[in-house]
Model the fold of this input.
Amino acid sequence: MPNQNIFSTLIVTWVAMASLAMFLVGHPARAQNISADYTFLVGSAFLCDSATCPAAVRSANDDSYEMSGAGTFNTQTKSVTAAGTYAHKSPNGTVLEAGIWIVSDLVSFDSYGVAPGALRQRGVALGPQPFGPKGLPISSSPMPTGGLAVFHIRLLPMSGTSRIAVLQVNCALGDVPRERSVEGIRLNFESKGSEFSEELTGRVMFLAMRPEVSTPAKSLQQEPVPASAESANN
Done:
């Protein structure tokens, strides 16, 4: 891909990420109409402060990848649309490569459950978070959700050839397994056997676009007619 095209795509990616964040913050009700189960953010938008963006991960050789991005996916159809930016850095901080990444497909998603108060704890409000009977969340707003998503992604550098990698995005909210308690990203280049598995910084989040009440409503059953009433009718 020519450098000019990559630069144009880079700008489009940042605009799309900012627009997605503003859409979710400003219009939580309309966000329900997105044709996806989840929206996710990686070290970007309203998750950011000086210590949490971009998301960064390090290899055993001490070089690192810094990544930001956003997207949506559907767990039933495995459809996904997501993109972002990245920078590959040496141990001394020199940028070795920079460009954009796009998701090829969703491999899997393991949900840890919803965390209704997560956004307010992080200083973000997406509108009222309503609750139904017994304090269970109902589905009128995007709901922060923990989980582990695994994607195949393509990295498109400003110069050089593209590469395929496996990106893991882990959001430590909800009922988090002990072995997944560290929030962040991991990156694995299968062709070269290069693995970046030490999470350094970065906040990530999944937003369930159509969260359901976890306890199903009881079905209404027809009450039996008393024998006396049945006799009277005859």
